[in-house]
Amino acid sequence: MDILVQLIINGILLGSMYAIISVGLTLIFGIVRVVNFAHGELLMVGMYATYLLGAHLGLHPYVAAVPVVVLLFVIGALIQRFVIQPLLGAEEHIQIFATVGLSIALINLALLVFGADLYSLQVPSVHHSLRFSGYSLLVGQAVMLVCAVALVGGLHLFMQTTPLGRAVRATAQNRNAALLMGVPVERIYVFAFGLGAACVGLASALIMPLIPVTPSIGSYFVLTAFVVVVLGGMRSLYGAFLGAMIIGLVDSLSGYYIAPDLKEVVYFAIFIAILIFKPTGLFGLGRGTE
Amino acid sequence: MDASVIATASPSPRKPGLATRLLHPRFYCAALGMALLLVVPLAINSPFLTHVAVTICVFAALSSAWNIMGGYAGQLSLGHAVFYGIGGYGTALLIQHFGLSPWIGMWPAAALAALVGAAIGYPCFRLRGPFFSLATIAFLEVTRLLFIHFDWITGGSAGLIVPLNPGWAWMIFYDKTNYLYIAFGLLVFAVLVAWWIRGSRLGYALTAVREREDAALAAGIDNTGVKLRAVMVSAGLTAVVGAFHAMYLTFLEPATMFSLPTSIEIAMYALIGGLGTVAGPVFGALLVVPLAEAARVWLGASANGLHGFVYGTALVVITLTMPAGLVGTFGRRVTGWLDRLPGGGNLAPALAPPPVARPQGTPGETMLEGRDLVRRFGGLIATNNVSITLKRGEILGVIGPNGAGKTTLFNQLSGFLAPSSGTVTVRGPDGKLVEPRAPDAFARLGVGRTFQIVQPFGKLTVLENIMIGAFMRHADVAEARAVALRTAKLVGLDDVAEVEARNLPIGGLKRLEVARTLATEPSILLLDEVMAGQSQADTQRMVQLIRTIRDSGVSIIAIEHNMHAIMSISDRIVVVDSGRVIAEGEPRAVVQDRAVIEAYLGEDFVDAQGH
User: Fold this and answer.
1) Reduced to 3 states, what is the DSSP secondary structure of residue B24?
2) Domains of chain B (ranges plus CATH)?
3) Which of B76, B304, B313 sits opposite A111 (nearest CB)?
């Protein structure tokens, strides 16, 4: 029983990490309608940036989060403006190839610059263990959970109450109608892609002290993020949050009860099953994949 | 109809012989070009160059195989390494456990890959673009993890070494030139398969399904069936090449045999060369593989990642600047030059189209019947208990205000929508009444339909568009072309036969809808507003055409807003309003019906008229 509770705690903490990454992916897909295969590489870039700021300027990753989020916002906006925007009218497979190409280019650029070695940032305060009635979690994980909840709540408030948020929602619902109402759709897209990338920036600063960075770290996370997003119904922030929690729990429980090397098989199997049998997502919150 | 149109007999109704084809410059230039891939390394005889040539052949062959599914059928797989790995592992395990030569073992491995391909494809084909790609990636990851997990069969992540018995029987050589012979042979085989499919009925069907699923169904194409055939051929071919490559590498591990980067690479060559073209994948591999291999050798480990960076950047640049790829962008110009070489010219044989069989049966018997049709969309009842009967040889006009439910009714009569309740019966060519289920089954029974919102295959020429319809009754390409040409003349599109369909004006597109449907040689024709958007002269022409079609024995239902035209051609009129039939009868009786005038012009008008 104790083990089960600890596994559930671990699962929720893992889920909050996936949530922050997946929320960014959901924003980009839900608004710009582009599946960003380079999303994981944005995470990788953010992690290297956090590492450099920490190792050379001595910035605590939670402080470095601010410049990293800004950096990723700018990178995301540039990608949208110069790669995605010219391809918005192109066929879907061309968009897929463009973001896949971006992902390959970024992975290998990191390989050229940093090599294949692991880089990790030692931040003792983040690794401090919190204990209560026999269960334990790291400070870094608790911060992740708080940030995930705050991020989804903040985005909710932003989308529902601000004029810009309304414009973003209008664009996501119907591009042409928004255009006719005077919404500068292309600028909204640039903003939305930047916002999605900025979420990943936050994730990378939070993850860096817990997991070492390699050039290919993104591919590991991005596949999981896609599973989460599909599970959550593609366009829904809350769906993505819930999906992330579920995948976190599946990861934690199946790693213990089935086999550590098969936990990914379990959630990929869930992924395929959802895609095929319930394309609107587990909670029917999205518009689906068909 | 002009009688001479039907009897356009060509003076030499003969297919070009094999010699004519072989002596065509498109063929001999391609053959000579490919032969260089074999001759140059043999002449220079450097192990490195041989290795590069083998790698080019392998990836060009893999990419050609991928292109059948990813290019022709438009199903963008990013998990094709599944089949490559199955081919390699299958063959290696058959050597290890059963002492089976790879020459034999590669075939059961390929059959397994084809089955796995069908099993993955069948549920995933309904997924749209990027989600199909994601699903294929997921299958790749699962396969790789399972191959690592079940290490008692596969050797796990430690890998598997192919038993090293040198000689042709075991496909293991000390001299790399022998590998080149086999790799080159595989490339030729893959390109021939891809080329044959491209020009076959299957190739056209795949293009049709990729461009417009609904129009393909209306042309009687079994969408899932043709995609399954494409994935099985593609997967099997990929596995055969994978089997050879495993023998060449002599070492297999899950990380390299089931790798996502390899899958992307395979697809990338096809994109760079030109998706859906026969020559594209070969050019793509020819261009990029030597660069990457050279970078690997000359720059060594210091440039680790450089070739990948170049790959990725090239991919982004290509999508931004040349999305049609090399062949898609320059192909027409080059084939134009080639055709001017000795032996060049048009290969398409001029065949006399076979005569159209006149639908046989008792005049006046029921051809198509919808009984008590109800169709709900959520709370809306679009079709409310409608019964409609089409008799043999008549033209039945369906009119009604916008939103009356006419097109919804059509969609049920042609199988594109299943009624919520009620039945649709069709008299098949054998004279029996049947209840088909799928739209392509309706089409094959002789129910042809057009779409109100035109559905051309934009990238195909007008003639090829019509051929897609003709393929339903004529499997032979030359015969289908002849039938399409005859149909194009009939509807007056023969002068634009070689124009890409997306360049036609709306009037031409409407006639193309009719032509594609006519080419399926239907016995029942459903026309959905074919006169909308036509000029006065074109409308007259369309009226004439519809009469001609009826006179050839086809029974017709036409939805139309052009009152003058529909009243003049129809034998009977059915008036639909708010999902119900409000009047039915001869044109003259119907226009005076109080309910009809009310539906169109409102109660006040009726009262003002004093009816």
Assistant:
1) coil
2) 22-339 (1.10.3470), 366-609 (3.40.50.300)
3) B304
